[in-house]
Specification:
With 512 residues, the chain is an alpha/beta fold. It has 19 helices and 13 strands. The chain has four domains: 160 residues, GAF domain (Beta-Lactamase, 2-Layer Sandwich), CATH 3.30.450; 157 residues, P-loop containing nucleotide triphosphate hydrolases (Rossmann fold, 3-Layer(aba) Sandwich), CATH 3.40.50.300; 75 residues, Helicase, Ruva Protein, domain 3; 62 residues. Strands 3-2-1-6-5-4 form a six-stranded antiparallel sheet. Strands 8-9-12-7-13 form a five-stranded parallel sheet. It has a two-stranded antiparallel ribbon with strand order 10-11. Strand 10 and strand 11 form a beta hairpin. Helix 1 packs antiparallel against helix 2 and helix 14 packs across helix 16.
Length: 512
């Protein structure tokens, strides 16, 4: 053997030669077999979680790579190993209590094993096993020498385990991301409730603009689902695997807006102890959604305009531009054109943002979506409240919901379903007399002076009511959102009633 210092230097270099612990072990094995009797080299850990010895890497002469394996420990063996407190290298004695029990599992007959325990901060991670054919192949002197390579091997093993843990967490996060993506969007943007009915025009615009890279401005009243449309654009775009950063411009304090959006350098202001990336930098490679864009103060509007024009940001206190590859989606419920006239919103920024505006209609203009939205929120809230089977909806209740104008839009409907579910956990849900300030959900009752315009008999009144429901259901009789469901009737019963009243409902002449 060459001198010890040269031996230790060379083996340390080989251990550190690769980030792949298997490759490092193979390189070390090639060198070690020139210096010592060794036919195989095995790196293992003691996995307390599994109660087993887990082989991390193997190296053997002229054999293909050996797959990693797990050797379950007999009951009580883990405690015996811990109590023994292995620290110095040792030649395995097959008659030792521990190894006598392990012999059938690790094949100790007719071979010599030398084990170098690997520790980090006094904690036993595992060990390095030198194996040679025949008995009595290792001496105490060799054991003492190999003890000096335990530290670099322990460090390499600790790094490999840390890398393995990072990969495991990465897999968990990717799985969580896929789950959350399905929860938010379903399998595609088409899963948005109302995407094929009241929001079909909006979703068609989403499909047109999503593959592109241009700025999008989403307009609509509060609570109409503008953020959901922004989500749909991002998830249907080539940037879907990149970050999706949401910023509520109205919720940021004016003194912090520049720092939050564009970042700051160390020492840029009191309390800036370290540099910080802003939301635009964090969205690099993805999409940034600027909700309530109309709330941005003039100084931030100027900075935003530069980002849109030059595709780069400049941190507060910084002197160099930082390029960013982002797509900007903005949204507001305010009238930006009126704000331009008033001078509170920049005209050049308006023209930059409004190249492709998408107007999300309020719920009162897409009442055909109300039944589906109500059922969706009922299912979601039931899960949140731990209700295994969502309660039923009373006959006629969906019609009441469709007759209401919903000034608070989807958000108000969600809150209404939640309150009703709290009140009537066992069902059925009636949605009556539970709106704020005692406002009724039904239409205005005709006054006495209007009585002369009412139908003169019950059949005429019934026919008028059914015609209105058919209009709301767009002529649909059965299925979700159909007239039968809205009226709380069996579809066949409703068809019989339509025939009796002389109301046309067949597909060829459904106009009523």
């Amino acid at each position: 053997m060459e001198n010890r210092d040269e031996f230790l230097r060379e083996i340390t270099l080989r251990i550190c030669s690769s980030l792949d612990i298997k490759e490092s072990l193979r390189s070390a094995f090639v060198y070690l077999r020139e210096q010592l009797p060794v036919d195989s080299l095995t790196l293992f850990i003691i996995d307390e979680r599994l109660g087993a010895i887990r082989h991390i890497a193997h190296a053997r002469e002229n054999t293909p790579p050996v797959p990693d394996d797990i050797v379950p420990l007999p009951e009580g063996m883990l405690e015996k190993i811990t109590a023994r407190n292995f620290s110095a290298p040792f030649v395995v004695n097959p008659k030792d209590d521990i190894f006598r029990i392990l012999a059938p599992l690790v094949k100790l007959e007719g071979i010599s094993d030398l084990i170098v325990p690997l520790r980090i901060k006094e904690m036993l991670l595992g060990g390095l096993v030198f194996r040679a054919r025949g008995e009595g192949r290792y001496s105490e002197e060799q054991a003492e020498l190999l003890g000096r390579i335990g530290k670099p091997f322990a460090i390499a093993l600790a790094n490999a385990l840390a890398h393995e843990e990072v990969l495991r967490y990465q897999a968990v996060l990717l799985d969580d991301k896929r789950f959350l993506h399905r929860e938010l969007f379903g399998d595609s943007a088409d899963e948005i409730i109302g995407g094929n009915t009241g929001l079909r025009n909006v979703m068609e615009m989403v499909r047109q603009v999503a593959p592109l890279n241009n700025t999008v401005l989403i307009l609509g009243e509060t609570g109409t689902g503008k953020e959901m449309i922004a989500n749909a654009i991002h998830s249907s775009s080539p940037r879907k695997d990149g970050p999706f950063i949401k910023v509520n411009c109205g919720a940021l304090p004016e003194t912090l807006i520049d720092s939050e959006l564009f970042g700051h350098e160390r020492g840029a202001f009191t309390g800036a102890l370290a540099e910080s990336r802003g939301r635009f930098e964090r969205a690099d490679g993805g999409t940034i959604f600027l909700d309530e864009i109309g709330e941005l103060p003039p100084s931030a509007q100027v900075r935003l305009l530069r980002v849109l024009q030059n595709h780069e940001v400049e941190r507060v206190g910084g002197k160099r531009p930082i390029p960013v590859n982002i797509r900007v989606i903005a949204a507001t419920h305010r009238n930006l054109q009126s704000m331009m006239t008033e001078g509170s919103f920049r005209e050049d920024l308006w023209y930059r943002l409004s190249g492709f505006p998408i107007i999300v209609p309020p719920v009162r203009q897409r009442k055909e979506d109300v039944p589906a939205l109500a059922r969706h929120f009922l299912a979601v809230k039931s899960r949140e409240f731990g209700i295994a089977v969502p309660p039923s909806i009373a006959p006629g209740a969906l019609l009441r919901l469709m007759e209401y104008n919903w000034p608070g839009n989807v958000r108000e409907l969600e809150n209404l379903v939640e309150r009703e579910l709290i009140r009537r956990r066992e069902g059925p849900l009636t949605f009556d007399a539970i709106l704020p300030q005692g406002e009724e959900i039904t239409k205005d009752v005709p006054t006495a002076g209007a009585r002369s315009h009412l139908p003169l008999n019950l059949d005429e009144a019934m026919a008028a009511h059914i015609r209105e429901v058919l209009k709301l259901a767009e002529g649909k009789i059965h299925g979700p959102g159909g007239a039968a469901e809205l009226l709380g009737m069996n579809p066949n019963t409703l068809r019989w009633r339509l025939d009796k009243l002389g109301i046309s409902y067949r597909r060829r002449d459904r106009k009523v």
